[in-house]
Design goal:
single chain, alpha+beta, four-stranded mixed sheet, three-stranded antiparallel sheet, 6 helices, 61% helix
Length: 211
């Protein structure tokens, strides 16, 4: 276990720059989206009637509060604290990862441990780092889904044996036949998206209240 911990810490330190880039890209994606929404809102303020204008101004201020709130996560000290937390957690999670099945297609990686664990990472949002641990690769990326952990834990970290990876075409077809699985996944994503939107608005209002 000590050897695994040393190797994991070595990997994280060695690839810290690449991990930082993925970390920043995660928040930049949401910031760019919010700035685009703010631009549309600002245009609406200039074109709308008085009552609607005040509502749009309020919305604009909320959006501005969310943007300022997100900026706190891209400060160097916040990333450093997050990185140290990953260095502590990841060695303990390594053994669990050995039982996770990984499959891929042209666009994504799929991680499946049981019916309740299903993580999809798009390849364009992920990077593979050769590990010091023999036969293993460290995959770091983020999902496109919205959930309550996206702010505090933006990145997904997986170790996988590159010799065990499988193509998932037949796998996906089999899973798509399972209506209960599809319904469960859809319900979970809708709940996560609703919770995230609510939290962002709440954080924005809380921040504006401190101004």
């Amino acid at each position: 276990m000590n050897e695994i911990k040393k190797n994991v810490e070595h990997d994280l330190e060695y690839y810290q720059s690449g991990i930082r880039q993925l970390y920043m890209k995660h928040y930049q994606k949401y910031l760019f989206f919010l700035l685009a929404v703010m631009l549309v809102t600002a245009v609406g303020v200039g074109l709308s009637e008085a009552l609607i204008r005040w509502l749009l101004v309020t919305l604009f201020l909320i959006e501005a509060g969310v943007v300022v709130y997100l900026f706190r996560y891209i400060r160097a000290e916040v990333f450093d604290a997050y990185f140290q937390r990953i260095k502590t957690q990841l060695p303990d999670e390594f053994q669990k990862m050995e039982s996770i099945e990984i499959q891929e297609d042209d666009q994504s990686y799929y991680f499946l441990g049981d019916q309740e664990l299903f993580v999809k990472l798009k390849k364009k949002n992920s990077r593979n780092f050769p590990s010091k641990i023999r036969q293993y690769t460290l995959l770091v990326g983020y999902t496109d889904g919205l959930d309550e952990t996206m702010l505090e834990q933006p990145l997904q970290f997986f170790y996988y044996d590159i010799t065990q990876i499988k193509h998932s075409d037949s796998y996906k077809q089999e899973r798509l036949k399972n209506a209960n699985f599809i319904a469960k996944q859809r319900k979970r994503r809708l709940k996560s998206a609703a919770l995230t939107i609510f939290l962002l608005i709440l954080f924005g209002l809380a921040y504006l209240g401190t101004l």
